[in-house]
Structures are given as C-alpha cells and as structure tokens.
Amino acid sequence: MSRIKTIFAAAAASLALTGAADAALVTVRDNPNNGSSAFASGLGRNVWISHDGSNRAVSAGVFSLQFSDGGAWTDFLTFCLQIDEHLSLPREHQRVADQTYFPTASDRNAVGALYGNFLTAGTGLKDSTSAAALQTIIWEITEDGAANFNLSSGSFKVLSTDVLSKAQTFWAQIISGDYKPLRFDVFAANGSQDLLTSEVPIPGAALLFGSALAGFSFARRQRKS
After folding, report:
1. 103 preceded by cis ω (within 30°)?
2. Which domain range does residue 149 map to?
3. CA distance 140 to 185
C-alpha cells in the first residue's frame, strides 16, 4: 500500500483546518506545445517496475505542463508522485506546501534536492533514461521513504537495468551533501496525478537552474546508506 495515500489525507486535513483551500486552487493542463505527449520532448519512456508484488511497464519521465491561478498560463516541468493514478487534464489542483505533503524531513529534502538541481540538460534532462531515472527516485521516496531508499527491494522496485543504474548514480549525488534542496509545493488533485512544482511560480525554462550547490546535508544514517 502506497504511503502517498496517507500523506495526501494528512495534507487535505491540514488544508481544511487552515481554511486556505480556495486561495490555493490552480488549473493544470497539458502544454499545447507538446504535440501528442505530455512528456517534454524526448524525455519520457517505458520502464519496467515492480509495485506491491506486481511487475508491469509504466511510462516515466518529466512532464511539460502549464498551470494558471486565474491569470496567464505558466509553463512548468514536473514529475508525478503517484504510480497508480492516471494523468487526467485539464484538472483543478490544490497547491500544498512541501512540509505538509512530505512531513518527514528526509523525504522532503531528497525531493527538493532532486527537483532543484537535476532539471538541467546536462544531468537529469540529458535523455529519456535520465529523466525516467529521476521519476523512479521520486516514486521510491513516496512509496518506501528516503531513509529506506533501495530500488531493488521494498514495495517499489525498478527492473529496467539501464534506468536502475542511472537512478542509483543520481541518488548517490543527491545524498552526497553537495546539493541544496529547493523549497517546493505539490499540485494535488483527486482523479489525477499529484505533481511537483516550485514554491514560487517559476517559468519552465527558468527552472532549469544550477548544478552543484553547497550547504545541503542529510541525516547521518542516510549518508551511510
């Protein structure tokens, strides 16, 4: 059973208590420049995985989408957080803060380091395998947790060997201590995939910033892993 269902329930309860739901609604749609795929050009592929004991092929990579809070449409690059949910657009989403959606600091820091430092053409967006590898890392975090990260065991496993190898390389970089995590939000919706977005709206092209930034460190147990 996915941890994300419990996480989303907690996020929804928190938003209900704050009364901020109506102020944080956005509409997400496919980027009309994509053509026939929601993935950014050349950055999506099929990957064999095992989830809760069932082996299957899934599409993985980085989405190129647009969102609007009532004004102009903003391009953004994103990964999904739920393996078993379909991407159904256009759809109204709720903006949820990172600490609400990911209450565990190690999960939040890992996702923030990935999203803030690896969306560059020379690293995570170099090709479809790299983009798919980043997506599998996010699925592993949401399914099994960053503190228990292991793409070869647990409820989520990667079976495509080239994607697995690339993801393990990226993970070693993420936990190296060289990457500062970006504060991020989640666009959450019933009936469609929950999606990562930057905390302050940033156009898709501007999100491709930075490489190695100092100052980020994980807990000691993660360094050992």
Report:
1. no
2. 3-224
3. 18
Asked if the peptide bond before residue 90 counts as cis, ω within 30 degrees of 0, the response is yes
Per-residue pLDDT of the chain (225 residues; tens, 9 = 90+): 455 554 555 455 444 434 444 448 999 999 998 878 999 999 999 999 999 999 999 999 999 999 999 899 999 999 999 999 999 999 999 999 999 999 999 999 999 999 999 999 989 999 999 999 999 999 999 999 999 999 999 999 999 999 999 999 999 999 999 999 999 999 999 999 999 998 765 444 444 433 333 233 333 333 443
Whether pTM exceeds 0.70 = yes
Structural Rg of the chain based on CA atoms: 16
Take residue 107 and report the two structure tokens written for it.
């999960």
The total domain count for the chain is: 1
Residue 76 near residue 197, CB atoms below 8 Å: yes
Query: Phi and psi at residue 148, in whole multiples of 5°?
Result: -115, 25
Token pair 């953004």 is found at 76
Q: How far apart are the first and last CA of the chain?
A: 24
